Amino acid sequence: MQTKKIYLEYLEEFKSFGIPKKEIEELKKQGIVADIRFHKELYENKSSGRPTVGFLLGQDKGDNGEEYYTIGMTYAQAALSTGAEIKFLDYENTYQQMKGCDGVILPGGAFDNPENFFIDGKDMGGKEGKRFFAYKAAIDEAHHNQKPMLGICAGAQMLAALLGIWKMYRSIEEEVSKMTVHKPKAETDVRIHGLKLLKGTPIYEIMGLDANEDKIMINSRHNQAMVHPALQDYVEGTPLVKMDIYAVSDADGIPEIWGNEAAGILCVQGHPEDLAAKGDTKMQKLYNYIAIKALAYKKAHSQNKISVNKIGKER
Asked: Cα separation of 261 and 293, whole Å?
């Protein structure tokens, strides 16, 4: 597999880092997989032993109609602050790019999900596109190789639906008694509603919370969500990964943070990167979690390679 290293540039039009999609597509036509990175000067931690964490890029369209792969500034800051080497995933080569990663961050975004993800049983004619299948490819590769995963907003929903066989509300406004605002009219990075923490769950250690805390505030901008646990109990099938709920919306009980500690999976329905960018160290720890787990994965597999090579030489 031939690869070519390319670097994201700052795009003033979107206030994001990014790269034209056509550049990736042209490489693909030549049989080349893009190895997409941040420029080295953006890293404070340049140690050689750090893990490599994949990050699935978003997308934007310029005023001239040109499409770009992008990562927003708060996502970029949170990812860089983990200390991990960030390797970006596009929608053309996701599975191959994941092979060089020790873990992955699946961010939020808007795209069509399969109709069978939803609890309402309706067929609204949704059709999954490249972006959905890129998320699926990243999750499939990570799950197959037991790599840790951090899902944010839509990324969290994908992990719950694909691995945990959780169902989703298509529209919180239409399907849930309105008790809290999950998606404000204007996009915001401020704390918008409370989360009830479930005692004894890993979230306390992950965020460095006091054992007596039972509530935190988070920002929120989603209209779809995973269904209440009581409804999930009626879903048939065996999950690939059992998901445990760590926190729910304090007003209406909708799952907000969940995961599987043994599998290194953490899912957050809100956007902690926006709050971390304002100096909230506890929210940054949600991102640091993936780097900690990815480093453990890297060390374990490096040791396995050493053991295999040693056995091979002895033979």
From this structure: 10
Do the beta carbons of residue 17 and residue 9 sit within 8 Å?
yes
Rounded CA-CA distance 58/36 in Å is 13
For residue 305, what pLDDT is reported?
Answer: 54
How many domains does the chain contain in total? 1
| Interior/surface letters 54-67, b for 16+ CB within 10 angstroms, e for the rest | bbbbbbbeeeeeee
Beta bridge partners of 105: 55, 150
CATH code, 66 = 3.40.50.880
Cβ count within 10 A of residue 309: 10
**Domain residues for 114?**
2-314
Furthest-apart CA pair in the chain: how many Å? 67
Q: What is the DSSP string of 252-315?
A: T--EEEEEETTTTEEEESS-HHHHHTTT-HHHHHHHHHHHHHHHHHHHHHHHHHHHHHHHHHH-
Convert the pLDDT of each residue in 137-193 to its tens digit. Answer: 999 999 999 999 999 999 999 999 999 999 999 999 889 987 788 888 877 778 789
User: In which band, very low, low, confident or very high, does the pLDDT at 313 lie, cut at 50, 70 and 90?
Assistant: very low
